[in-house]
């Protein structure tokens, strides 16, 4: 007995509750059990079956070269690309409006009748000549059938294809209008299209059809990153104009400066413990909990303020502001001394005039920066406080500042669009590894932050990532020269095969990072806790 007959016999015995059942192989048994389960669900009304049609073509299909769809469509229909109306039917590979089908029907019939009373018809050859979409006798029989029925129903394939095209138009309009969309929204739009064009069909957009449609049109569900007011959204084009004007004028200002004297500077708040928003867990879990070394670590922050030069070089020192209850670091236990960090303390990590002056004094007005510089900064009000900056400015130092328009930081600020994401991702990788493997290492404590921050910034400054840093200026539109292809810092330092034996002398630990300078694979103990420095 064949496998199919055995499976059918087994299903029959289960349905009849027979005491003896045929023995099946494991894979056949699984299939049979699945079919039985579906049948039982069908009896209980839990299975819904439906049929869907879609129009498909392939490159090797023989299309009618003499057929001109433009001449067959009404003037209104010619406004659309592809299928211009749902009121169409398919004759072979040719789309025909129902109106033209009726013209063919009326022309095919002659007012005279045969002796037996049947309607006389025109010769097939004359029909084929006058109506190019008619090719075979079967097409002529379709005309007779339509005539007897008294109606020509639109082809299901055409209806669905038309709905698909209109749905894409409505979806793009909704996206550009800043509306929130879900699968149910698409089904609502389908109903609106059916109502607008008076389409009589039961098609509603099943789960599978909607998923296939989204894939075909590159539409997907994404996390909402920003909510903006209606006024701001509608005036977005004005912001674009301001951004274009700023970039254009700033590029003009660059002509008077050497690339070594042009900097972008921007401050960013980092949580004391940086974690990703996703984790692996068991499928079906509704509540996902993860531990943190301190509740304050994910609610309190510190501020970093880097400087990125136009040639893609980061300032050797990173300015960091910690919030201290007294407004200063304790003298009894001073913070860890990291050579590439300039540390500052205040009652809040949010910078003000005092910290602005401190930043210029300890970072900008040093020998690491040229005497006459052009700074590109965001719309933070303190950047325009020339009187505050002048209080710490040496006589030989000159500063000119170009202020990015408000609201444009995330689109044309080089540090924001090109550096900070990798910076934070690097810190997250270190923090999450410490959480899992080093319980005695508290990522939220000041010295732990300083060590991770210092090592991360040191890696980001490596010449290996020169093209990556330079790309930030290109992405902001400040240069037309696109840097060569590059590898991002986290992709290089945390690549897939980095986990193995630590290559530090005398260490037996498991490596978790590759140093961008010496290329050694190092463990967390050597790289962070022991503060690895090879150059």
Report on this structure.
The protein has 535 residues and is an alpha/beta fold. Among the domains are: 3-43, no CATH class; 88-149, no CATH class; 240-465, Nucleotidyltransferase, domain 5. The protein contains 20 helices and 14 strands. It has helices spanning 3-15, 26-43, 69-72, 98-108, 124-130, 137-149, 156-176, 183-196, 207-216, 230-234, 236-254, 353-364, 386-390, 409-412, 414-418, 420-437, 446-460, 466-475, 489-493, 524-529; strands at residues 88-91, 94-97, 109-113, 119-121, 262-265, 268-271, 301-305, 307-309, 318-323, 341-346, 372-377, 398-403, 513-514, 521-522. A four-stranded mixed β-sheet has the order 8-5-11-12, with no helix packed on it. Strands 6-7-9-10 form a four-stranded mixed β-sheet, sandwiched between helices. A two-stranded antiparallel sheet has the order 1-2. It is elongated. The N and C termini lie far apart (77 Å).
Rounded to the nearest angstrom, the radius of gyration is 35 Å
Poorly predicted residue ranges: 50-82
> Main sheet, how many strands, which sense, barrel?
4 strands, mixed
Work out the strand percent.
5-15%
CATH topology-level name of the domain at 240-465: Nucleotidyltransferase, domain 5
């Amino acid at each position: 007995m064949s496998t199919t007959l055995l499976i059918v016999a087994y299903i029959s015995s289960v349905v009849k509750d027979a005491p003896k059942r045929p023995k099946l192989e494991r894979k056949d048994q699984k299939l049979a059990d699945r079919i039985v389960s579906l049948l039982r669900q069908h009896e209980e009304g839990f299975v819904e079956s439906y049929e869907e049609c879609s129009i498909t073509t392939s490159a090797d299909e023989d299309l009618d070269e003499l057929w001109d769809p433009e001449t067959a469509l009404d003037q209104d229909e010619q406004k659309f690309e592809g299928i211009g109306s749902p009121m169409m039917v398919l004759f072979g590979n040719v789309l025909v409006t129902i109106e033209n089908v009726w013209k063919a029907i009326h022309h095919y019939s002659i007012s005279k009748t045969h002796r037996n009373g049947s309607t006389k018809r025109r010769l097939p050859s004359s029909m084929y000549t006058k109506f190019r979409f008619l090719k075979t006798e079967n097409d002529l029989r379709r005309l007779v059938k339509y005539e007897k029925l008294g109606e020509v129903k639109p082809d299901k394939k055409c209806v669905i294809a038309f709905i698909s095209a209109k749905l894409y138009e409505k979806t793009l309009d909704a996206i550009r209008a800043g509306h929130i969309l879900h699968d149910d929204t698409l089904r609502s739009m389908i109903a609106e299209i059916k109502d607008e064009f008076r389409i009589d069909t039961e098609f509603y957009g099943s789960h599978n059809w909607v998923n296939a449609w989204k894939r075909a049109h590159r539409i997907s569900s994404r996390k909402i990153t920003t909510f903006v007011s209606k006024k701001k959204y509608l005036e977005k084009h004005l912001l674009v104009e301001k951004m274009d004007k700023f970039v254009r004028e700033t590029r003009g200002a660059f002509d008077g400066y050497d690339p070594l004297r042009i900097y972008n500077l921007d401050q960013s708040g980092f949580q004391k413990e940086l974690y990703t928003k996703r984790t692996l867990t068991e499928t079906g879990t509704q509540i996902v909990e993860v531990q943190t070394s301190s509740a304050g670590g994910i609610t309190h922050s510190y501020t970093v303020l880097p400087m990125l030069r136009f040639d893609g070089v980061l300032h050797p020192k990173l300015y960091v502001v910690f919030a201290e209850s007294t407004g200063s670091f304790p003298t009894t236990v001073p913070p860890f001394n990291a050579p590439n960090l300039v540390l500052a303390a205040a009652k809040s990590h949010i910078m003000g005039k005092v910290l602005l002056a401190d930043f210029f004094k300890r970072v900008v007005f040093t020998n690491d920066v040229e005497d006459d510089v052009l700074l590109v900064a965001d719309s933070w009000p303190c950047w325009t406080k020339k009187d505050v900056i002048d209080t710490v400015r040496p006589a030989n130092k000159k500063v000119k500042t170009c202020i990015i328009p408000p609201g444009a930081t995330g689109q044309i600020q080089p540090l924001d669009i090109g550096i900070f994401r990798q910076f934070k991702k690097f810190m997250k990788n270190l923090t999450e590894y410490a959480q899992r493997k080093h319980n005695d290492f508290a990522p939220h404590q000041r010295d732990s932050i300083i060590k991770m921050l210092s090592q991360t910034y040191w890696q980001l400054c490596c010449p290996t990532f020169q093209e990556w840093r330079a790309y930030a200026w290109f992405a902001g539109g400040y240069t037309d020269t696109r840097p060569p292809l590059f590898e991002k810092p986290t992709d290089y330092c945390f690549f897939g095969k980095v986990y193995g034996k630590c290559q530090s002398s005398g260490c037996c630990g498991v490596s978790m990072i590759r140093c961008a300078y010496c290329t050694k694979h190092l463990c967390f103990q050597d790289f962070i806790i022991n503060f690895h420095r090879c150059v």
